[in-house]
Every structure is written in structure tokens, then in C-alpha cells.
Design a protein that fits this description.
This protein is an alpha/beta fold. It is built from eight helices and seven strands, in the order βαβαβαβαβαβαααβ. The chain binds nicotinamide-adenine-dinucleotide.
Length: 257
């Protein structure tokens, strides 16, 4: 077990990739704090973990709200002790052109996607310092390769890569490792919302699969394994990295024959 008795906090763990990470970390022996803005969703993840014999608690949290994150850190400490692992996964996506995006939508997306990473990192740092712990942030291939109709989202994912590298430099001497994951399209909420917004969701999904060299979209579990790797002892000399988990996302061109 890679995370035996490690206290693992996963934000946005009520669904999709975050839920898969929470389940995988519990399977690896972690004691998991499932943080999500949707309390019922967090409780459902906890239920799944306990059914599988793991240990977890749910904490209703808005990562964009400093008081809520302070409560999450305090609750984690009271129930399980200091956090060893923080996974900053919670995010939203506004799929609009810039001129159609309201300042409020822009602000909320920045506050959740980037502000949430900042606030959770800030308020868990005292605990991570004591445990010489690890932070894993969820960026995206959109931090490198942009796509239409999501300029604000791409900006937040690019910011997370820079933030990850900068924090790694600031805290490496304390034994804290900070890395991020850049997934391609994954069979989870944000990609699904995009497919559903297209005139033909099934066609959009198939087209997205073809953007990857492996010819398909990824599964949440495939990102979760990368998160366990970066959080655990196998990545003991890895910090400031952006691990691409994208099935070869890129050209979208068919292979030459
Ligand atoms: N799905 C993809 O194709 C894909 C690709 C690349 C990167 N990502 C990244 O992976 C992460 C998870 O994506 P997903 O597709 O699983 O999303 P999802 O929508 O399935 O799940 C996101 C979870 O975050 C929660 N959440 C939203 N706002 C929150 C807030 N303010 N505070 C706490 N929780 C909040 C939601 O309730 C939900 O449970 C995101 O960071 C996303 O940018 C996803």
C-alpha cells in the first residue's frame, strides 16, 4: 500500500476525477477527507470508500471561500491529524467566448480554479510542513494546448502549472513536494458537460477521442493512479513537475499509412 495511514485531502471529490482519486487513495491505505461543495456527493463518495473497507469523512467545502477552507483544515486535523497529501482537484468550466463571459463568471472560475488551489495550499501548509507532505494539483492539457470557447478555463489551468512550479521552489527545502497533473479528455463531469452542450454529444465524444493518439478519452481511474504516484513514495524526488496524462493528446491528425 502506497499511502498506508496517510491523511489525504481531496477537493472536488464528490464526482468524476476527484472521486476516483479519493477511492484510489483509500484503496492504497489512505485516510481520506472528501471535500466538495455538494455535501450529498461527498457523502456518496465516503459511502463507496467505506463499502470497500476504507476510511473517509465528508466535509462540505467551498474552496473559493477562505472561511470554508479554514474549517476544512481544522476539521481534518481534529478527525485524522495533520494532512500528508492535499489534492487540489475542484474546478468549474465556463465554456463561452470572452465577450460572452460575464465578469462574475470570470471571477467565479478564477476563484474556484486558481483561488481554491491558493487557499487550500495556504491553509494546509502548516500541516504539510509537519508531515513533510505532498500537494497534487489538477491542471489540464489546456494549460499547454488551448481549445475553442474556454479561454478563461485555459487561463486558470495555465496558472496552476506556474503556481505548482513556484510553490515547489518555495517549499522544497521543507520537504514539501508540489506537482500537478495535466489530463487530456477524461470521462468525467467537465468533459461530459462539454459533450452534452454540443448538437450531437455522441459525435463530439467520438471526435474528442480522436484527438488522442490512443484514440479514446481517458478514464478517471487512469488519472487517479497518477495522483497516487505523485503523492506517494515512488515520487520522492519529483517536485515542480507537470505530469501529462493525456493518451497522446495533440495533433488530432490520423496516423500516416
Ligand atoms: N474531465 C476532463 O476531461 C478533465 C480534463 C483535464 C483536467 N480536468 C481537471 O480535473 C478536475 C476534475 O474534473 P472533473 O471532470 O472530474 O469535474 P467534475 O465536474 O466531474 O467534478 C468536479 C467536482 O468539484 C466540485 N466543486 C465544484 N466547485 C467547487 C468548489 N467551489 N468547492 C469544492 N468543490 C467544488 C463539484 O461539486 C464536483 O463534485 C478539474 O480540476 C478539471 O479541470 C478534467
Amino acid at each position: 500500500m502506497k499511502l498506508k495511514d496517510k491523511v489525504c485531502v481531496v477537493t472536488g471529490a464528490g464526482a468524476g476525477i476527484g472521486r476516483a482519486i479519493a477511492l484510489e487513495m483509500a484503496r492504497e491505505g489512505g485516510r481520506v477527507v472528501v471535500a466538495d461543495i455538494v455535501e450529498l456527493a461527498a457523502a456518496q463518495t465516503v459511502h463507496q470508500i467505506r463499502e470497500a473497507g476504507g476510511e473517509a469523512i465528508a466535509v462540505a467545502t467551498d474552496v473559493a471561500d477562505p472561511d470554508s477552507v479554514i474549517r476544512l483544515a481544522a476539521h481534518t486535523q481534529q478527525r485524522f491529524g495533520d494532512a500528508d497529501v492535499l489534492v487540489n482537484n475542484a474546478a468549474i468550466q465556463i465554456s463561452k467566448l470572452v465577450e460572452d463571459t460575464t465578469p462574475e463568471e470570470w471571477q467565479r472560475q478564477m476563484s474556484v480554479n486558481v483561488g481554491g488551489v491558493f487557499l487550500c495550499s495556504k491553509y494546509f501548509l502548516p500541516q504539510l510542513r509537519r508531515t513533510r507532505g505532498a500537494i497534487v494539483n489538477l491542471s489540464s492539457v489546456n494549460g499547454y494546448f488551448v481549445e475553442p470557447m474556454c479561454a478563461g478555463y485555459c487561463a486558470t489551468k495555465g496558472a496552476i502549472i506556474a503556481f505548482t512550479k513556484a510553490m515547489a521552489i518555495d517549499h522544497g527545502w521543507e520537504g514539501i513536494r508540489v506537482n500537478c497533473i495535466c489530463p487530456g479528455y477524461i470521462d468525467a463531469g467537465l468533459a461530459e458537460a462539454y459533450f452534452q452542450a454540443q448538437p450531437d454529444p455522441a459525435a463530439a465524444r467520438a471526435a474528442a477521442g480522436k484527438l488522442h493518439a490512443l484514440g479514446r478519452v481517458g478514464r478517471p481511474e487512469e488519472v487517479a493512479r497518477a495522483a497516487v504516484f505523485l503523492a506517494g513514495p515512488d515520487a520522492s524526488f519529483i517536485t515542480g513537475s507537470a505530469l501529462v496524462v493525456d493518451g497522446g493528446f495533440g495533433s488530432g491528425l490520423p496516423p500516416a499509412r
